[in-house]
Amino acid sequence: MLPIIYGLLSALTWGAGDFTGGLAARRTGALRAVFYGEIIGLAAVLALSYLDNQPVPPAMVWGLTTLAGALGTIGLLLLYHSMTTGLMSIATPVSALLAAVLPVIVGAATEGFPSLWTFVGFGFALAAVWMISQGRDGVTDILSHIADLKLPLLAGIGFGLYFVLMNLATQETSLFWPMVGSRSGGMLVLTVFMILRREPLTVAKGSWSVIFLNGTLDILGNGFFILAGQTGRMDVSAVLGALYPGGTVLLAWIFLHERLSRNQWIGIAFSLAAILLMTI
Fold first, then answer.
1. DSSP single-letter state for residue 53
2. Separation of alpha carbons 36 and 14, rounded Å
3. What confidence tens digit (pLDDT) does each residue in 201-250 have?
4. What domain range includes position 47?
5. Cα separation of 164 and 191, whole Å?
6. How many domains does the chain have?
7. Percent of the chain residues past pLDDT 90, beyond the cut
8. Distance separating alpha carbons of residues 233 and 263, to the nearest angstrom
């Protein structure tokens, strides 16, 4: 049960982080919200690494985690860009689904196939990711946009590689130092991107509290994902972590009174079924 619990906690905290990140983006812009959230997360894991007094991991771990952080951030930037081209209803479910599928494929190749009930649970979870990530109108025109899916697909590959590389790098090491590596990789990509775009660094008044909450929740999600992978299978931790859109839409429903579509409610039901199946 421990990997299931950690995987669910990663989904919940990542979902809450995306919710608060959305609030911060509305106030001060998406890029600046992500950039300062990354800085807060990096400062937090640096402090925790020193307080934990764990040995510094070898160069291989640093390389893999830095690459994972860079690829995950590139995926995020590609996802944001695809949303600006009018593909928002398609971009999110496509990227989220591929991010979950890739670790399942790698996990089957490296760890063998999971139990039958867990495998069926994967099916429900992947369906849940797709349904929950859709907008209110659902994905109804995906066939007419096949040629335009390259950015969401690349974003999903970036997210999926983050899951795979972080799991590979953190099997026999401490919890916090790998997150320093991944945050550093993400910060490098964001800094270069913001310099190239000449993005202003000013933050809107009253935004720091929600940015701080976003950075804290996101780093908690990363920590729970690492713990899930250290105590169980990579595919289980990645698929459960990929359910994070469920936390986001539920918080938007509770606090912003946003209506959930029928597809999203079905997706939430599928996610609960997936969790039950994985615990058998």
1. T
2. 16
3. 888 888 899 999 999 999 999 999 999 999 988 888 999 988 888 888 88
4. 2-278
5. 24
6. 1
7. 32
8. 29
